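User
New here, explain this?
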Amino acid sequence: MDDVVLGSVVEFLRRVPPFQFLDEERLERLTKRVEVHYFPRGAVLIRRGERPPEYLWVVVRGGVKKVLRTATGEEHLFEVASEGDLVGVLSSVDGLEGQLDDIAVEDTVCYAIPRTVVEELIASEPAVARFFLGALREWVRASLTALERQEEPTDGALVLSAPCRTVARYPLLTCPLGTTVRRAAQVMSAERVNSIVVVDANGRGVGIVTDWDLRERVIAAGRSPEVPVEEIMSAPLVTIDADRLLLEAVRVMIARGINHLVVTEEGKPYGMLTAFDLLVRQGTSALFLARALERETRVERLAEILEQAQRQLLPFLLSRGVRASEIAQIVSEINDRVIARVLALLEQELGPPPVPYCWLVFGSEGRREQTIRTDQDNGILYADPPAGAEQAVRGYFLRLGQWAVERLVALGFPPCPGRYSADNPEWVLTESEWRRKFRAWMSVPEPQAVLNSLIVFDFRGVHGELALATELRDFVRRELAHSPRFLFHVAAVSTAQPPPLGFLGRFVVERSGEHRNQLDLKLGGTGAIVNLVRLFALEHGIEETNTLARLLALRESRAIEPALAEDLARAFEFLLELRLRVQLEQLQRGERPSNHVDPRQLSSLDRTLLKEAFRVVARAQAVVRERFHLEQAGE
């Protein structure tokens, strides 16, 4: 290599652990022995069960996926190594045969460090030895063993339905406020961990310091190691109670984009969950998908990742006994990531937004109740522009909405037949325009307008200035308190579609057309429950948009009879799971997913439970009709 190339290699490796621990002279000597290797997409760097490679690779450009193939040929994506990540660590440390298949996911360039050089570093550099021979080796080896055990069918253990305390690593490493960065790093090194929680005088967590913080906020930033940890820690601390389910931990880590989650007991740090722990625990991993989405810069690759979620993640979670409502929330988090990534890429093309804005999702997306991808329901809320700039600002957001919807269609999110999407100017509005629209719906509640508007009332912000969506939600709640007539019409709409169950308890199916002898699980089932629960939530000022969360809030506030709330929750959970099962079976048969099912093809148990769910819907509709005096009004 010439001096310019050597300099660039030195600069790159200086930011990569464990080479960042080397002094300048040793790093330059190392660089002279580094090779540059190119791997085309699909090339195998390490093959499971075969002799170890002669190199440790550092990814410079591209990516390498780690894949575990089960005895049945099923492929579990375990992790993706991208820029600055290492490939072949176990092999480099002790010559282990390949534990996973490491495959280039795209054309990839790596710096290749001969295994003999790695062995020399381990022998002569204590910091490098600790990195390779300490926690990393035992951690990965134990985790791989745990993952391999999941190749065989379990005895029904609910992988993500266990409480966080069952997986959290404890005791947790902590340090008090005022501890120097140097001391914190020394403790982390001695204990062979990659994070330490900073606690206050009462023992409550206030922040976390990770290897990333040390690398980026101290070493790369040229700061003194004598500064207190509070100057470089990540704060506020994101936590989860030890008794919450692992599924909720997955959702939090995806939503917040974090790799460490502190588990608390009675408000105090108890243990640590890492993304790696949950990747292993979960097998086919939503966390992996979220991480891949976050790094991806090409829209076409996003489609492949989403396809993996639909074909592998959903069936895996359902087979492990995870509830359909919980699966829907994880899928919604992944969808949120896709939307945010698409919008971020579009902002690079269009330039930064001229005023703050928030991308809104409506309907099932807004309620976090999506399973198999359904029609897009979205819009744009942007801050009132300064005088004279209205036209230019609106033009920007109209283009953003149109292009975003087109990109999402290309990724497999169908366009909305009713045009409740951001490529329709009707749903690209300023703060003032959105408020006027909601006020008009509530002040002059024409039946058709009410029907058309209900989908929008479940809005939720997923990208941009989320405070704009929160402020709009507050406005809607205040207006609803003075709009009893609007709620009356919502009640009428919510009871207009009875469940498909006849007087003698027989299913009412369609007699002709595409869905002959089938019934719609959504129209008179989940959709009917959504409408009823939304009505109660709007009436009582509940801010939640998710149906089960609304029911919980309504039950706790005694806004509806607790027994009815419980029955509605059970019915909704069953109907959602049945819809998901039916749609996955349709996909496996190469059919387009729908909400229709022939009840004769269901098991006897499913038919019995389906009838009971429909009876719950009918009972709740009767409560609404009586509550709002719909019979007296001739409804």
In short: The radius of gyration is 28 Å. Residues 134-159, 280-284 have pLDDT under 50 and may be disordered. Residues 324-350 form the longest helix (27 residues). The chain has four domains: 3-149, 164-282, 286-482, 489-627.
